């Protein structure tokens, strides 16, 4: 009689058992490598027609530039195109407070001055101005992310794209950092109805504080954010010690970086961390926020990433063949944003795009892409003040080791019974919020006295465990810019 010698060792990502190569491969939730990738592209019809204000860096018009390039490359012929409906008020209430949604629904530039109390309460002002048809704008980009999530959950697409989404700073009851409605949280909640575990990845230069805060107490969502971290950079959160709390402890991972990180350093760190994370957590689906303000020469960013490097992160996550929701985010040089997101749309379709942009000279958008009219333009040419790379190899290696040590606390992926989402899934009980906010206030006062170097030394030397048991500095209302 022949016995099959199945492996009895740990399935830890740090151990490879050669005998497992002979075992049948699990196919559930995976696309076969020989299958044609089914991509669904969501573009709300009027999302690019809104205006934050003359001097505001956020320009929804970048969506029109992106869409023109996508159409110019004829990518619409390779994927399904969707103009989704607006999110309903009830859908927004799945995450946001009813009084906040009601405020967004009724506030206008004309009556805003009469709502002074609410203006302060909901954190609108310079960063988050009140502009014409604000609520409709929120409904459009949130509706697109919800529709994309449903497309993935139904199994009718392998990758769903909504470049108008990815507004990761919005909180449960207030606006923050140009963001009013957190479409990412809404989309993840939709995915959780069908997928036991969801992985959220954020490559925006700003910390994904709104999403992290929303799932800080949950072990069904693991959030990973790669971002600049310093005392004076918005939102001032995202240090190594923010690891989650309660059931969600060790389900929040942060990769704090300094100015000027280059392609090689970023890609190496990203691949090393994400491979271990995906192998350990074993997500059923992935949400990837592709904020383009991490590109070189962004008006608010300080990294030195090229479009090719940014896209390499998308290509790497795509290679795991899991249902993938791709969203936009930050990005404040419109031509760079459009180039980047068009290139990454091509990556999703396994296409090599011509470096010459397909825009005729008589097109209204032609002048946005001067002087070279190339897809892979040298972004450093847009800004003569190149940021020096302050990320030493030693510090990056320390961060990598710390993150991988944190992953060991997860043991194996959590076992979750699939059922309808309960009302308190995200742990927003009143007593939890009070305890969290009380600790936040003391942390904010203590951290505000430290310099950037102090913060890094404290984090790296303590192996990222911190003194606050992983409490985020989330509710600080720091301004991204001044008008």
Automatic annotation (TrEMBL):
Subcellular localization(s) per the UniProt record: Nucleus
EC number: 3.5.1.98
This protein's GO CC annotations: Rpd3L-Expanded complex; Set3 complex
InterPro entries: HDAC_I/II, HDACs, His_deacetylse_dom, His_deacetylse_dom_sf, Ureohydrolase_dom_sf
Keyword Transcription regulation: yes
GO MF terms held by the record: histone deacetylase activity, hydrolytic mechanism; metal ion binding
Active site: 169
Binding-site residues, substrate: 127, 177, 332
Record-level GO BP terms: epigenetic regulation of gene expression
Domain Histone deacetylase residue range list: 56-345
Pfam families: Hist_deacetyl
Binding site residues for a divalent metal cation: 204, 206, 293
Keywords for this protein: Chromatin regulator, Hydrolase, Metal-binding, Nucleus, Transcription, Transcription regulation
Main localization of the protein described in the UniProt heading: nucleus
Signal peptide residues on this chain, from the entry's feature table: none
Catalysed reactions listed for this entry: N(6)-acetyl-L-lysyl-[histone] + H2O = L-lysyl-[histone] + acetate
Family per record: Belongs to the histone deacetylase family. HD Type 1 subfamily.
Descriptive protein name: Histone deacetylase
Organism: Kwoniella pini CBS 10737
